[in-house]
Amino acid sequence: MSLIVQKFGGSSVADAASIRRVAQRIAATRRAGHDVVVVVSAMGDTTDELLDLANQVVEGHPAPRELDMLLTSGERISMALLAMAIKGLGLEARSYTGSQAGMITDERHGKARILEVAPRRIQEAIADGAIAIVAGFQGFNRETGDITTLGRGGSDTTAVALAAAMDAEVCEIYTDVDGIFTADPRVVPKAHKVDRITTEEMVELAAAGAKVLYIRAVEFARRHGVRIHVRSSFSDLEGTIVTNRTVPAEGETVEEPVVAGVATDLSESKITIVGVPDVPGKAAQIFTIVADTLANIDMIVQNVSTTRSGETDISFTLAKSDVPAVLAALEAARAEVGFAELLHDDDIAKVSVVGAGMRSSAGVSAKLFTALYEAGVNMEMISTSEIRISVVTRASAAATAARAIHAAFGLDGEADAVVYAGTGR
Amino acid sequence: MSLIVQKFGGSSVADAASIRRVAQRIAATRRAGHDVVVVVSAMGDTTDELLDLANQVVEGHPAPRELDMLLTSGERISMALLAMAIKGLGLEARSYTGSQAGMITDERHGKARILEVAPRRIQEAIADGAIAIVAGFQGFNRETGDITTLGRGGSDTTAVALAAAMDAEVCEIYTDVDGIFTADPRVVPKAHKVDRITTEEMVELAAAGAKVLYIRAVEFARRHGVRIHVRSSFSDLEGTIVTNRTVPAEGETVEEPVVAGVATDLSESKITIVGVPDVPGKAAQIFTIVADTLANIDMIVQNVSTTRSGETDISFTLAKSDVPAVLAALEAARAEVGFAELLHDDDIAKVSVVGAGMRSSAGVSAKLFTALYEAGVNMEMISTSEIRISVVTRASAAATAARAIHAAFGLDGEADAVVYAGTGR
User: Which residue is closest to B17 within chain A, CA to CA?
Assistant: First the structure.
């Protein structure tokens, strides 16, 4: 029998009725003759409610070890309820915590990395003919014996890691949209679902701000060759297959589109350090200071300054939530670094175009820049990877930019797409 | 440094403000120079809310293994929040699940028995100078690797078991009353707090329906010589010390009262099996049928029948919630057992008087029966142990009976007591 891993996010198990509906779907998969391992997130807003409680009992940041202990109660509730509901349908089901499922991580509370997956108990459950329900988002550290959480997108990562460890046929990620779209339909009404996408493209799309799949999970899938199927928990439609396969199967169209999708990201801010002495080692010094705040920076551009001789400006983008800590750290090091001024700008958007076909296709940048110019959109920063080009624009210009790019690369579908929202952890 | 185990029930940690208050109390104990291990229940109504959810996702009884997985999320939340709150006061605190704390049980989900306590991690935390916060009510089974719960009163049992395993100076059970009272003040306004009581008396009082301490915990304390201090989480007053010690210390009053307290229990029903053939082995047959339903029966009386020759009536009391299952099991065996009729009566009360002094004091039964007769209370069943006499009366007569007994044995205090409510699990 083939093994299928199914992951359901918080919105799919938000209340008792949803849990019963998900149980029906899992039971149908089992009755169709598959072995099934289910990964589940906490119900709906549980995580936010628990965080609220933590903020009520303590000023400032709660202890990370205790925060992980607190938050992992969320999946414990949803997985036990889901197992009960499946058993109520006459099938055997057993729930397992991250530690029972063998999700061994490092000790970094709140953002642990998976070191090893040892799913002995899950394999035993499957061998017994049971459906195994595994808590997403959580693991444990062998040295300390403590409970850890994997951070944002952790449940996707749990699902992909289990699929890899157990050599599953497919890892189905259930969400509230029909699959991966060529753009966010709220921004680009002509966006349409894609049937297939490569993990490489998906990594870039996730990094560029697409919220349907988390980048860590896709990276994990790419490294371990896990086939992901992103699909709706509200319908039986085929969604989007995300795989490493680039050699087309017999009968498949060989011609791949140059561009797979357009992503828009409004979650970042820009910081510009003005008047940095143009001497070797300054960039290293600055980004060490930034890294010490644990902020994740994204795009970096060093502008050659024309007005001040021997000085340069450095701009970078980062998550809006990281701005206060980074500004404080840089301000504290102003004398040491010797810069003139520190600016920040929350009012930016990052618009990206991603496609494996860009590698072999000339003129992609030219086409992109022309489309934006004709749409009257100003580019403030540009950053390129092998299969991605990102530009920073005013936040207010983001939708115009995305629509112009979507049309320019021939992605516009026949009809307007349905609007979707991002998923939780 | 002396080690103190402190147990806080659900009503003591019902919300963020209560958790902060409890944290202050724990911190004060630590700062007074004691090592502290804390056992905590789930917040307020968490358990009931989780049970509600379980009933919404599945018809009938939820799977016991999954129910334990679900319910144990409750302590996970309260213990993590409490640890955060204590750390917020500048002291080191670490929370531990039942399995991390080494509470090893048998595999009976929902009513597991503790087989062994292996608190290695708790000892390490204490050695590090930290306050250890342990989830009450939960354990794990070594063979299956599964999470278990200890059933009603489980958190008291966790606290006493840890106190025994770690040789604590005292196990403080915090509750919403000032200690153990000579009777339930809601029933007997002249009830007063006792300063000391023996574990033996406390076992009988708990068995007789007193709700402040659970019988399993007291039995555990009696067997292992744990000193319990029952006290209020709302004041610093001394509560009631529960110990095995019967030899009075120098300076203590040698004269012990004959009776320690009066307990009233309205939670039981009476079942009467009419017309049982009076042949050897019938009682064994009947109570095997009853035991197979897992019901706990309390008082048993076999009435000599005068109206039918060769037949007898058997009456017993049991928890109201167990009545349907027991009636069904007995009805199914009617032909096999050969009885005439099955009656049940929910409208009863059990009133008990408990005291170690009863052993050496003649005429206790006579005084009790006289008091009830003078108060106009009819006795329907009588059952005695070495240090307890229980009588079954109409439910409506329970308060009158308790007050009459309380007065007859000289327990009435100077002033009326404050009213208290029972505690949770």
Answer: A57
At a CB cut-off of 8 Å and minimum separation 6, what does B357 contact? B256, B257, B258, B259, B260
The answer to whether residues B412 and B189 touch, using CB atoms and an 8 Å cutoff, is: no
Residues of chain B in Cβ contact (below 8 Å) with chain A: 16-17, 19-20, 23, 50, 53-54, 56-60, 62-63, 65-67, 69-70, 72-74, 76-77, 79-85, 87-88, 93-95, 97, 100, 121, 145, 147
d(CA B287, CA B270): 14
Please state, in angstroms and rounded to a whole number, the distance separating the CA atoms of residues B157 and B150. Answer: 8
- Give the integer Cα–Cα distance in Å for A355 and A359: 8
Are A66 and B53 within 8 A, CB to CB? no
- Class of domain A255-425 as given by CATH: alpha beta
Contacts of B238 (CB under 8 A, 6+ apart): B179, B195, B229, B231
Strand partners, A93: A131
The CA distance from A263 to B330, in Å, is 69
Distance between CA atoms of B97 and B99, rounded to whole angstroms?
A: 5
B73–A77 C-beta distance less than 8 A:
yes
- CB–CB contact B58 A88 (8 Å): yes
CB A317 within 8 A of CB A297: yes
List, in sequence order, every beta strand (DSSP E) within B80-216: 93-96, 103-105, 114-117, 131-135, 138-140, 147-149, 170-175, 196-198
Q: Which helix (H) or strand (E) holds A262?
A: strand A261-265
CA distance A80 to chain B (A): 5
Q: What is the pTM (predicted TM-score) of this model?
A: 0.76
How would you classify the pairing of strands B228-232 and B114-117?
unpaired
Contact B73 A79 (CB under 8 A): no
| Cβ contact A95–B66 (<8 Å) | yes
Under a CB-based contact definition with an 8 Å cutoff, are residues A134 and A118 in contact?
no
Residue spans of the domains in chain A: they are 3-175, 255-425
Cα–Cα–Cα angle for A405, A179, A41, rounded to 5 degrees? 125
B56–A69 C-beta distance less than 8 A: no
This complex has an ipTM of 0.71
Query: Least CA distance to A23: which residue of chain B?
Result: B57
- Counting beta carbons within 10 angstroms of the beta carbon of residue B360, is it exposed (0 to 12), middle (13 to 18) or buried (19 or more)? exposed
Q: Smallest CA–CA separation between A83 and chain B, in Å? A: 7
Q: Is A99 left (phi over 0), alpha (psi -120 to 50) or beta?
A: alpha
In contact, B144 and B123? CB cutoff 8 Å = no
Nearest 10 degrees: CA dihedral of B199, B205, B206, B211?
A: -120
pLDDT digits (tens, 9 = 90+) for A339-391: 989 999 999 999 998 887 776 666 787 788 888 888 998 888 887 777 888 88
| Spatial distance between the Cα atoms of B121 and A385, rounded to a whole number of angstroms | 49
The pLDDT of residue A86 is above 70: yes
A66–B50 CB contact, under 8 Å:
no
| Helix (H), strand (E) at residue B373 | helix B364-374
| Closest residue of chain A to B133, computed from CA coordinates | A66
When scoring A26, A69, A97, A121 by the number of chain B Cβ atoms within 10 A, the one with the most, hence best to mutate, is A69
* Cβ contact, residue pair B66, A58, below 8 Å: no
Q: What residues of B are in contact with residue A83 (Cβ under 8 Å)?
A: 63, 66, 69
pLDDT digits (tens, 9 = 90+) for A4-41: 999 999 989 999 999 999 999 999 999 999 999 999 99
- State the DSSP H helix or E strand holding residue A318, giving kind and residue range, or none if neither: strand A311-319
Cβ burial A205-231 (10 Å sphere, 16+ → b, else e): bbbbbbbbbbbbbbbbbbeeebbbbbb
List, as one string, the DSSP characters of B200-236. Answer: HHHHHHHHTT--SS-HHHHHHHHHHT--EEEEETT--
What top-level class would CATH report for the domain B3-175? alpha beta
Residue in B53, B82, B93 nearest the CB of A16: B53
Q: Chain B: residue nearest A64 by CA?
A: B84
